[in-house]
Amino acid sequence: MKDNNIKLSELTDISWLKEHYFSNPAQKITLKKGETILKQGEKNDCIFYLVSGRLTGHYKPKGGSQLLIFSTGEDSVVGIYSFFSADGCSYTTVNAEEDATVYYMSKAELPAKNHPDHQLFSEHILPIIVNEIYLRQMLVVKNATEKEITLKKLMQSEKLATLGQLAAGLAHELNNAIGVLQNKTQWLTNQLKVIFNQKEYEHLYPLFIKGLEQGQHSSTADARKRKEHIKKALKIDDRLAKKLARIDLTDEEIRQIAKQNQVDKIEEMDGFWEMGMTLHDMEIASTHTTHVIRSIKDLGSQNHSDVQECDLRLTFKKSLSLLSNMTRNIQIDLDVEKGLTLIGNEGDFIQIWVNLIKNAAESLSQAETKDPRIQLLYVPNPHSIHLQVIDNGPGIPAHLLPTIFQPNVTTKVSGLSFGLGLGLSIIQKIISSYGGNITVSSVPGHTSFDITLPKT
């Protein structure tokens, strides 16, 4: 389709043609809206100059639907192709889109080759012919471009539909498997509670429960500081102090260990705490996986279940528990104040942080960034909750930033980060469903995902 809004008078001087061929009142036609001046396939030996109104040309392929080829307004010509073509047939049906006035000239008026006006006619009609050729070429290019864009959209649509089917199938299979793991974890936890809650384990049972309920509670930095304090208090080596430090014992508990001379039981204490902590992480991981699966299923819906008041700092800590192996060599700075809450689904927030922290950790690891660091920050704002996930990795390529939240876009060379490049797309959808938004800025050494959520 073309919309020819360029006036001939802007391209060439047509005053000579108008004076000699398009001004005879006897060759003036007034068209009412909807009237036809040319029919597709019919002979035409006239050029029409449109003085006012608008004409449209339609082409209808055999067995196909009618296509709009052009729409042209005043100070333009119609019929050039059929006038000069060998078969002399119009390839479109031309109608008045609105009331129109045209002047026409016929082939019978063409000056003879030996007439002085022949040269003048040629000189004045040639720019119009060239313009018509140009417009037809542009039409071909435009149609080809639109066809290519449509084809790409169709392919993308089919690809996403296939991915959706694949995701639904995976979700079904994973849901069954994770259900077994979740139930068995709960069963094992209950069994161990019964076994450890006996007299012979009474000094170790609280540590098991502590690990079970809190998981790895201390940050890496806090554990380092605590370790030095414990080393001095109990006069033990670095390895044992490190084990006690991660349990996050109180000063009174440390004193009791010293008082009861239980230094030789530190390994055992650590083992019971770690069993509890492992079950804690397994429960979080299975719950999180269940939530991810549900998110895939709910990708096209607005469904929030299990809504409650969520401690955002706790959701960050649970996310870090899930990613502890991946982030063990990365400095994590968690600066989200205690007591910062939001009404929502805890799993939604964990899923957001897990995706962003995981992406950052993978980027830092792949780039072998020196002194890798991830900051999880709360930025005070009177009107909303503003959180940031920042890393000092290589950054996101500039050409990917505009599409980073679209499905099937990934910065990873290989792989399915859930494999489908859906991670950021899903978390944007989750954040949007809470009335918030997420933006990203990135330069080498500083990539920041900024999440803004309305206060509740």
Automatic annotation (TrEMBL):
Boundaries of every Cyclic nucleotide-binding domain copy: 31-110
SUPFAM superfamilies recorded: ATPase domain of HSP90 chaperone/DNA topoisomerase II/histidine kinase, cAMP-binding domain-like
Domain of life: Bacteria
SMART domains, sorted: HATPase_c
Pfam family, one: HATPase_c
Alphabetized GO MF terms: ATP binding
Residue ranges constituting the Histidine kinase domain according to the UniProt record: 292-456
Listed InterPro entries: cNMP-bd_dom, cNMP-bd_dom_sf, HATPase_C_sf, HATPase_dom, His_kinase_dom, RmlC-like_jellyroll, Sig_transdc_His_kin-like_C
Keyword Hydrolase: no
Catalytic reaction list: ATP + protein L-histidine = ADP + protein N-phospho-L-histidine
Alphabetic keyword roster: ATP-binding, Nucleotide-binding
Enzyme Commission code(s) on record: 2.7.13.3
EC class (word): transferase
UniProt xrefs under Gene3D superfamilies: 1.10.287.130, Histidine kinase-like ATPase, C-terminal domain, Jelly Rolls
Protein name per the record: histidine kinase
Source species of the chain: Reichenbachiella agarivorans
